[in-house]
Amino acid sequence: MALLEVKDLRTYFYTQEGVVKAVDGTTYSVEEGEVLGLVGESGCGKSVSALSILRLIPQPPGKIVSGEILFQGRDILKLDEDAIRKIRGNDIGMIFQEPMTSLNPVLTIGRQMTEAIELHMGMRGQAARDRATELLEMVGIPEARGRLDDYPHQFSGGMRQRVMIAMAMSCNPKLLLADEPTTALDVTIQAQILEVMNRLSEEFGTAVIIITHNLGVVARYADRVNVMYAGKVIETATAEELYKNPKHPYTVGLLNSVPRLDETRKMKLQPIEGLPPDLAHLPPGCSFYARCEWRVDRCQEEYPPFELVGDNHYAACWEHERVKREAPIGATS
């Protein structure tokens, strides 16, 4: 049994402009100890799918309309509020996208860290502070004990992100959701943060879902990759297979948009033309139709099935065999 199974999840937002189908029939799974990369353009549903797992969708305007989220065999969507609170921060931890807005500016770092430790681990007083100190040391914050009494504004961006990781790992969760954990950090700090997460994952056997735009991060750290577009997972495979043998035109476009160090300086990037569709007014058929160079008439009329196209490799594309044969060399080398 997989640690997490998301089945046909649909999370919609009801607005004056219409129903925004932020997550529209997403299905995937995560095994124990696995690192899963979730990639795609902004607005494709990555963060909403992660927030749905912890039932943190603001209501209104959002609503989890249908589907199943099975965590260790239990459907999270059927749990009452007390039961889901016991899972949040305890069995499933989350690193939010922007640490400065996720940390409470009027509470010390120590108080914010010990809150979850007291609630889920039953520690109190000095024992909880000792655990918080241990966690800050684990993520590489110097003079950790003294820094428990500091406030978020007294930490740099990279240090705040380390605090967020320490908080997410405080109760040794079985699953860690990392929503763009290196946003707005310089590349050196990004590497340090990712190495910290990877080390903690290996040390505690924690499964991780990394949500990111950075395909380099995915290549280095992820065991398997889900590519999302317009609220759906449109391709999934191991990281190695996906980079060597992409089967969906959107995946090919993402890979060709990445600068390559082995190309000449005069080599131009190949951006994906056009814009993502309006999620409140999705077209019939394949959502990528208007931007796809391999499109055929059938694509405009009928959405392709998400089917097996290789060894543990799934994609939703009517023309995946043509994509395999004709994809530019830059996407497959």
Describe this structure in words.
The chain is an alpha/beta fold. The chain contains 14 helices and 12 strands. Strands 6-7-8-3-9-10-12-11 form an 8-stranded mixed sheet, with helices on both faces. The chain is globular and about 65 Å long. The two termini are 34 Å apart.
Task: Please specify the SSE layout and strand pairing.
Layout: E1 4-15, E2 18-30, E3 35-39, H1 46-53, E4 62-71, E5 74-75, H2 81-87, E6 92-95, H3 99-102, H4 109-121, H5 125-138, H6 144-147, H7 157-168, E7 175-179, H8 187-204, E8 207-212, H9 215-221, E9 224-229, E10 232-238, H10 239-244, H11 249-256, H12 297-301, E11 307-310, E12 313-315, H13 320-326, H14 329-332
Parallel strand pairs: 3-8, 3-9, 6-7, 7-8
Antiparallel strand pairs: 1-2, 1-4, 4-5, 9-10, 10-12, 11-12
Helix pairs in contact: 4-5, 5-7, 7-8
Give me the CATH superfamily of the largest domain: P-loop containing nucleotide triphosphate hydrolases
End-to-end gap: 34 Å
The DSSP helix count reads 14
Query: Per CATH, what is the topology of the largest domain?
Result: Rossmann fold
The value of Rg in angstroms is 21 Å
Which class do the helix and strand fractions yield? alpha/beta
How do the strands line up in the largest sheet?
6-7-8-3-9-10-12-11
Descriptive labels:
single chain; 333 residues; alpha/beta; Rossmann fold; eight-stranded mixed sheet; four-stranded antiparallel sheet; globular
